[in-house]
Write a structure and sequence with these properties.
heterodimer; A: 263 residues; alpha/beta; three-stranded antiparallel beta sheet; 27% strand; B: 11 helices; 10 strands; 54% helix
Chain lengths: 263, 385
Amino acid sequence: MLSILVCVKQVPDAGRAVFDAKTGVIDRASAGNIVNPDDLHALETALSIKDAGGARVTALSMGPPRAREALYEAAAYGADRCVLLCDPRFAGSDSLATSRALARAIRKLGPFDLIVTGREAIDGNTGHVSYQLSELLGLPLVTRIHRFHIENGRATIERLYGHEYQKIRAALPLIFAVGRDDNRVRFPRLADIALSSGTVVEELSMDDIGGDAAEYGLAGSPTVVVDTRVFSHTRSRNPIEGDTAEKAEAIVQRLKKHGILRY
Amino acid sequence: MDLSLNGTQLMVRKAVRAFAREALEEWAGALDRESRALPPEVTAEMGRINLWGIQAPAEYGGAALDSISYAIAIEELSRVSAAVGLGVTVHNSVCLAPLLKFGSAGQLERYARDLASGRKIGGFTVTEPQAGSDAASIRTTAVPDGDRYLVNGQKTFVTNGGTGEVFLVAATLDPRKKAGGIAVFIMEKSMPGFEVGKIEDMMGMRGNMVSELYFNNVRVPKENVLGRPGDGFKISMQALDMGRIGIAAQALGIGMAAYEAAARYAAGRRQFGRPIGSFQGVAFKLAEMKTGLDAARFLIYRAAHLKDRGLPYSVESAMCKRYASSVAMDVCREALQVFGGYGYVKDLPVERYFRDAKITEIYEGTSEVMNIIIGNAIMKEFERM
């Protein structure tokens, strides 16, 4: 049976949060907390493997004590084991310090055949963690997974990357980074919700995973946020003139220009 | 005393709300317009997430949740589609629940798993053309015939009648004994002589295939009597105690949908240069709605809480149904008023809420019957003093 670890982060509910467009800062107190949406897709990936051939799914979250709620929710979706990586010395960690702590926790809890993370979190939007885990754990990272199949310790993965399609084979263990386009998250079963209230969340502190306080938290975080900006996407209308053939040609040229059509 | 929901209850609310929005909402309008049932794949998905066995034990494939979680689930479904909420609450509370409570080992083996998984949809029927509130006057008869009963008669206004396959049917063994002569039979639609009559063309709840049922010499095995033969009336009344919590939760869900639609509209609709919600005439309506809905919710939770503690809850159940259904009707009427002309056209769902709400004052005991139950309890209490 495969052993899978899923990284789960608790984030402010962006849909309900009050967002200061000037400073780009989320007023965390105004929002409830949710499981980061991409992480639910990561969990779905793990659960689909569990459904297909059996797997033991461990959910790992780093965060303050209230991040326990995210783990209960992971259990409600079907995670078998829940671990909270929690220590005041982790407070203020950037993505690198976070990945360092997660990697050490994963080493301690493992070995795992597969580690699944979300592509990015909706609070920081760095998308760093899966790449950093890949470096720190020395495991290959696979992104943009359209479809996959795992058999006899090997994964066959179909990737859709931009306008390319790839089919690759890789030996486990691997790291998958999963986003919202990669699968459809199931609705949790009420029976699993009922059982999840009895979930025991294991706790790991810095002392359990090792390392020095200077490697974590603000002290261990090289990232400095200089500026945050809110991007806005605008659409513009570009009428194409001419007869049908000319219009078609103009569209083809544009699609080629943007790399959507190549040949 | 803790009036907040626990973690499980909160998660049930979140999960059912998400399911209702993402999987049911697209159907809600069509079910009503076309008076059709949910597609089988949606019904099956509801089975996978245990909505057809919300309180059934895990051994039968249920979620074994408490009654407050049950009420929450029905409220959330009904917010989006009251007709779906109806099908679910009737199946769970007045078919599966009495089966689990009074059923023999053989009956449970035979029916509980199919019902709790939603492979078979269930119903419950006492009402006949001549026997509504006076439930003990039913004329459907059951006559012993060897190791079977021959059941003959007609039932009407049967929720899930068109889609259901297993029904708890009240019939009289001896009309002279009135309530004491009634038995509840587990009947299957596949039994020869069991016929579905016309599907009712109703004002609301049009997504539920409410129908007549006809029994023409249906041979029902004696082992299909639920509980003891003379206990049918008691079993039915107990089933309705739980059923009413479900109907109250359904009424609450309809009311919530109407209230939220009205509040959103009042905040966005501008007349005389300002949002209509900033006029006291509209804001007061919203205030009344919210207060009534909260009061209804707590009456429902109290009845559910008493049930889970194993305490008597018939009167509290009647009270929550009596109140929640009135609130739903009031809220829908006022919400429609907030929408003005837009509330009266079928482009928006407010008129559907209005039509759906009315029946909650009628089925599973009218408001007047609820008042009889409550009034009798009051008299009993004060006569003793």
